[in-house]
């Protein structure tokens, strides 16, 4: 993939500034680039501390020794052992011998972890994203929403001859010209399991102008394959092997019920032939696949609080120059908020509607557009 104009300029400036003699010491940087499909980490680990030869190493007090990874902390549950020998976060059962499985709706998949609550898995999800090289922009266990900041997948940067030489010193100046963000929704299902979905958002830097010296950020489609990759990595963090996680993705269970559009009440509503619990999850996933972002949600009231998300402006605010030039007031200038209501109409029927500030059916054009988008995503 080509480097952006800004990145090319940074590369040239850095190459002129740095002395070629620094190449002799760049062997310590050979771990900066990985050949993995995803690599969002921008810093390398510090070297291990060495005890000087004239000092005697002291013994380590066992009170300060970290427990093994599969040992429970505080109120965290003990890991279960599967028949295959895995020590997993999920609780194995007849239907799920590995303690978890994947369900899908179209090209969107989510992980179901048996016998665990969202509270029990939340700290593991925090560690998962931080270990993957992300910082968390939204970390709200009360609403089950976790969102990363925009980050660059450095595995997409080509490993050409220039990068293997001069670039080994100034690798930070290279850019893939893309940024990714991931939203994790965590919900409790009626069977005592936890549903975890991961949704990808992407932006790409496009060169503009006749001389291609300026650029602008544009939205890219979400990448279901990248979402599946992170679900596989999450399953491995929960105790499965690489082969087992890929097999569960291949064997994803279909969870589909058609949505029927109803315009008889003067506005637009949707009817789903399924219980509230599964409808609540599917509506959240559908909203994530549109240009509307979930700011908050109240499962007890059955309401998703959403607004239109302009990813271009959001990326500008999150960037280095955005933090310098975008004021707090400009950051607050966001689109209006809408209330998407998911309401049970019986054991096997759920209605979806957009409500106004008074809790009544919103008949505005914007509200009907939201219902139309949800109708397309749910079918």
TrEMBL record:
PROSITE patterns: PROKAR_LIPOPROTEIN (PS51257). InterPro entries: BamC_C, NlpB/DapX. Keywords: Signal. The keyword Signal applies. The keyword Signal applies. It holds the Pfam family Lipoprotein_18. Residues 1-24 form the signal peptide. This is Outer membrane protein assembly factor BamC. It comes from Paraburkholderia acidicola.
């Amino acid at each position: 993939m080509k480097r952006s104009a800004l990145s090319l300029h940074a590369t040239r400036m850095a190459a002129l500034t740095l002395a070629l003699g620094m190449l002799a010491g760049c062997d310590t940087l050979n771990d900066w680039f990985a050949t993995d499909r995803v690599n969002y980490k921008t810093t390398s680990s510090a070297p291990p501390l060495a005890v000087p030869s004239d000092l005697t190493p002291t013994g380590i007090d066992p009170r300060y020794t970290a427990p093994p990874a599969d040992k429970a902390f505080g109120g965290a549950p003990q890991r279960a052992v599967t028949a295959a020998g895995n020590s997993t976060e999920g609780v194995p059962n007849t239907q799920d011998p590995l303690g978890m499985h994947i369900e899908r709706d179209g090209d969107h998949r989510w992980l179901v972890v048996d016998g665990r609550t969202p509270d029990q898995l939340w700290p593991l999800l925090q560690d998962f994203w931080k270990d993957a090289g992300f910082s968390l922009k939204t970390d709200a266990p009360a609403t089950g929403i976790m969102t990363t900041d925009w980050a660059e997948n450095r595995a997409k940067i080509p490993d050409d001859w220039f990068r293997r030489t001069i670039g080994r010193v100034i690798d930070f100046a290279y850019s893939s010209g893309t940024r990714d963000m991931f939203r994790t929704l965590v919900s409790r299902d009626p069977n005592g399991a936890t549903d975890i979905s991961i949704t990808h958002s992407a932006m790409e830097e496009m060169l503009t102008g006749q001389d291609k010296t300026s650029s602008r950020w544009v939205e890219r489609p979400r990448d279901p394959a990248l979402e599946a990759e992170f679900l596989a990595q999450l399953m491995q963090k929960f105790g499965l092997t690489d082969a087992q996680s890929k097999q569960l993705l291949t064997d994803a269970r279909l969870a589909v019920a058609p949505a029927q559009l109803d315009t008889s009440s003067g506005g637009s509503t949707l009817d789903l032939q399924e219980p509230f619990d599964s409808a609540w999850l599917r509506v959240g996933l559908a909203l994530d696949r549109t240009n509307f972002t979930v700011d908050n949600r109240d499962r007890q009231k059955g309401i998703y609080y959403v607004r239109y998300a302009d990813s271009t402006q959001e990326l500008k605010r999150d960037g280095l120059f955005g933090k310098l030039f975008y004021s707090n007031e400009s950051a607050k200038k966001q689109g209006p908020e809408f209330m998407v209501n998911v309401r049970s109409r019986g054991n096997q029927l759920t209605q979806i509607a957009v409500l106004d500030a008074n809790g009544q059916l919103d008949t505005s054009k914007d509200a009907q557009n939201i219902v139309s988008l949800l109708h397309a995503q749910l079918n």
